[in-house]
Design goal:
The chain is of the alpha+beta class. Helices cover about 50% and strands about 20% of the residues.
């Protein structure tokens, strides 16, 4: 929401300048009127954005309620399968469904927080990168396998390799938020394998400390000089086409042709990294030939915390 008091002060200053003598430093009255029109238009845009966000939050609220119904139905169905059919494959499908529901629930909560402008409520705490990767290693493996099955890919032909560093690199982060950032990148890589019909593929996750001595231009912005912990998520999939690379963090932009992509996943990644005062650098080698590999690496730069208090 705009600062109404500040806007009024600026308007008053401009009016005063416009009514002054046409000497040095004075502002022409016509320019004052045009600036006031700009401020008015900006206020209308902000109000429209707020209305859209409220509408999205309402949709998310309804979606969460529907998820609770779906989850209850899946649990009942799973119990019926286990007691009546004793079919292990059907039982596993039920487990996958209920797991997917409870994983979506907190993600929708994060989306709602973004829409409401409440990112500040996602508390950041000092965390060792090694502890963070180790904590969620099993969950990411499970999510990876679940995603492969949902895309009808043979789990034995694909691998997720997570390297937990021995060194203790500390960052300030919201574990749940950063967990979903990494998981979203895992999902995107699996979807890329499926879309390109790759017979096999590998996703690699790791972390390292990196000193940036001078300001650098990266794929999506400028990286200031400083010490960082870099969490990298790499895949040997088809890569991202360079004609869309600059737009991938914009809401509604998706590379998933015909796979139901909403274009909100990477937008959420970028917003979450901004909340962490971090940066995202994307390195990709795109290939257009079906079945061939290119590769993409997302590097998440998080400021290094030198003291763990």
């Amino acid at each position: 929401m705009t600062d109404g008091t500040l806007v009024e002060r600026v308007k008053e200053a401009l009016r005063g300048a416009g009514q002054g003598n046409a000497g040095e430093g004075s502002v022409p009255a016509q320019l004052v009127q045009e600036l006031l029109k700009v401020y008015s238009a900006q206020g209308e845009v902000v109000e429209a954005q707020q209305n859209v966000m409220l509408y999205i939050r309402g949709l998310i609220h309804d979606a969460l309620a529907d998820l609770m119904i779906v989850n209850s139905s899946l649990e009942l169905l799973q119990g019926w399968i286990e007691t009546r059919t004793h079919d292990p494959e059907l039982t596993e499908i039920g487990v996958i469904g209920t797991t997917a529901v409870w994983r979506i629930d907190p993600l929708l909560g994060l989306v709602s927080a973004v829409c409401q402008g409440e990112m500040q409520e996602l508390e950041l705490n000092p965390t060792y990168a090694s502890g963070f990767l180790g904590q969620y290693q099993a969950e990411w493996q499970h999510a990876f396998t679940t995603r492969l099955r949902s895309r009808r890919l043979n789990a034995q032909d694909y691998s997720l390799q997570i390297s937990v560093p021995e060194q203790y690199f500390c960052v300030n982060c919201n574990n749940n938020g950063l967990y979903h950032v990494v998981q979203n990148l895992i999902y995107n890589a699996v979807d890329a394998f499926a879309e390109a019909r790759l017979p096999r593929g590998t996703i690699s996750i790791g972390a390292r400390e990196q000193e940036v001595s001078t300001q650098q231009e990266i794929s999506h912005g400028t990286l200031p000089a400083g010490n960082y912990v870099v969490i990298s998520v790499s895949d040997d999939g088809p890569g991202i086409s360079h004609d869309i690379l600059s737009k991938i963090f914009e809401p509604g932009v998706t590379t998933k042709k015909g796979m139901g992509g909403s274009g909100m996943g990477l937008y959420m990644v970028r917003r979450m990294m901004i909340h962490h005062q971090g940066y995202v650098h994307v390195v990709t080698q795109a290939t257009q030939e079906e079945g061939s590999k290119g590769g993409t690496t997302f590097e998440l730069y998080l400021p290094l915390v030198t003291e763990f208090s």
